[in-house]
Amino acid sequence: MIKIEHTTERIESIAGLPLAGKLISRMGVTSIISKLKKGAGNILAHMLGALVQGNTSYESLRDFRDDPVFKEALELEKVFSPETVRLYLEQMSGDVDSLLKQLQVCNVKLLEKASLSGVKVGTREMIPVDIDTSPMDNSKTKKEKIGYTYIGLKSAGLSATTCCSRISAPRGI
């Protein structure tokens, strides 16, 4: 039976954020450096925190400016404004190759700590992967390779066929 009680305590809807913050910390995302912008890792943590909450726009960061849970979960000294995050990401864009390599290292670091077990499919050992997509409406743009998503939007994002591709891992993982 569900019991509803009145409370004066602050109730947060971002329950998964502390777990995401721990993962971001263990991956070492906040230690990522850019030759073009000091504190690049913290800027990336801002965006990852927003993405974890299902927000894909800079503007969504405004909702977290005064949120102590967002700040503490991501171990941020302060939460930047959307305008600041956008500006800093633009400044970091000239260093994208280095940033991507560092993010890949962070990803490998996390995967090395994980206990992955495969599923035997015929003669192959496979690792199941669950990928959720975030389709964005690109119908009024002139981007290449635009296609319809499963919800009817014209998008350049991941399609269902991309997400359902087989991903196999070498034996021993």
Describe this structure in a few short sentences.
This protein has 173 residues and is mainly α. The protein contains six helices and four strands; from the N terminus they run αααααββββα.
Helix content: 25-40%
Distance between the termini: 43 Å
Assembly classification: single chain
What structural class is derived from the secondary structure elements?
A: mainly alpha
Number of helices: 6
| Portion in beta strands | 5-15%
Which term fits the overall shape?
globular
Could you tell me the mean pLDDT? 79
Instruction: Give the low-pLDDT segments.
Output: 158-173
Any descriptors?
173 residues, disordered C terminus, single chain, two-stranded antiparallel ribbon, 6% strand, mainly alpha
Please describe the topology of this protein:
Elements lengths: L16 H11 L12 H13 L15 H6 L8 H11 L3 H18 L5 E3 L2 E3 L20 E2 L5 E2 L4 H4 L10
Antiparallel strand pairs: 1-2, 3-4
How does this model look, in words?
The protein has six helices and four strands, in the order αααααββββα. The chain has 173 residues and is mainly alpha-helical. The chain has a two-stranded antiparallel ribbon with strand order 1-2. It has a two-stranded antiparallel ribbon with strand order 3-4. β3 and β4 (154-155) form a beta hairpin. α2 crosses α4 (82-92). The radius of gyration is 19 Å and the shape is globular. The N and C termini lie far apart (43 Å). The model is unreliable at 158-173 (pLDDT under 50).
